[in-house]
Specification:
Blueprint lengths: L15 H11 L14 H13 L7 H8 L3 H6 L4 H5 L1 H10 L1
Length: 98
């Protein structure tokens, strides 16, 4: 996922910068550039692990978009989608037991 780097001697990094960066990223004239590059190996492995651990993730729109048009953008939407949030408790329990 793309990150925004802001260097300013006037904004403290203790919390004032996060609100300002959120404002910059969500204002009206922000142009989101489509990323049609193929997904990285790590993204592909993460999605495979997510689908293996939670088979109901295949029913989500994000996963369907990824399978029809696999790009970096659609691959990054899968782990950020509902499947990851819906199964957060299961993941946390599994991490402690593994």
């Amino acid at each position: 996922m793309a990150r925004l780097i802001l260097k300013s001697p006037y904004i403290k990094s203790t919390g004032g910068a996060s609100g300002y960066l959120r404002y910059i990223a969500t204002r009206e004239r922000v142009e989101i550039i489509p990323d049609d590059r193929p997904p990285t190996n790590k993204q592909t492995q993460l999605i495979a692990k997510l689908v293996n651990d939670f088979p109901d993730a295949q029913d989500l729109m994000e996963y369907e978009d990824y399978t029809t048009h696999p790009t970096k953008a659609t691959a990054s939407a899968v782990p950020n989608g509902k499947a990851y949030d819906r199964n957060r408790v299961k993941r946390e329990d599994r991490e402690f037991t593994d």
